[in-house]
Amino acid sequence: MQDLVIRMKEAADSILAGIDCEFKSPPVDLSHKLTLQFRQNLFLLYKEALTNVARHARASRVEINVLQQDQSWRLSVHDNGVGFDPQVSHSGNGLKNLRLRAVKLSGVLTIESQPGRGTTVSLSAKHF
């Protein structure tokens, strides 16, 4: 699990290059092993969220929180960008991909955004 968190930090540094980014992750419980499928879907959802920020948000700051507690993962990506109206249909695949990955993780995904107020993407998922 520690490798996954390290990869997540490296991805943020790479994808969000030039954007002030704060990555928070308390120490992870190394006694729990994650399945390959869980790791892949969590990482791909995370990368999609970061890519959406880099491509669309025009953000100057991003805050990322990764918390693993017992058998739950909580992930939050918040930006101070232009935001959008989540009720309006969007032509791209970004939001659709986020929702698909959340389903594959049996997780709960929330997307909070308002025009001019940034966006927060949050995921809560259990691994077994």
Keywords:
128 residues, alpha+beta, Heat Shock Protein 90, 5-stranded mixed beta sheet, 3 helices, 5 strands, 37% helix, globular
List the SSEs and their pairings.
Blueprint (H helix, E strand, L loop, with lengths): L1 H14 L4 E5 L11 H22 L3 E9 L2 E8 L14 H11 L3 E6 L5 E8 L2
Parallel strand pairs: 1-2
Antiparallel strand pairs: 2-3, 3-5, 4-5
Helix pairs in contact: 1-2, 2-3
Explained architecture:
Helix 2 runs antiparallel to helix 3 (94-104). The chain has a five-stranded mixed β-sheet, covered by helices on one side. A hairpin with a 5-residue loop joins strand 4 and strand 5 (119-126). The chain is globular, with a radius of gyration of 14 Å. The chain has three helices and five strands; from the N terminus they run αβαββαββ. The chain has 128 residues and is of the alpha+beta class. It has one domain (2-126): Heat Shock Protein 90 (2-Layer Sandwich).
Distance between the termini: 13 Å
**Rg estimate, integer Å:** 14 Å
Portion of residues in beta strands equals 25-35%
Neighbour order of strands in the largest sheet? 1-2-3-5-4
CATH superfamily: Histidine kinase-like ATPase, C-terminal domain
Q: What is the domain tally?
A: 1
Number of strands: 5
State the gist of this model.
The protein is α+β, with helices and mostly antiparallel strands and 128 residues long.
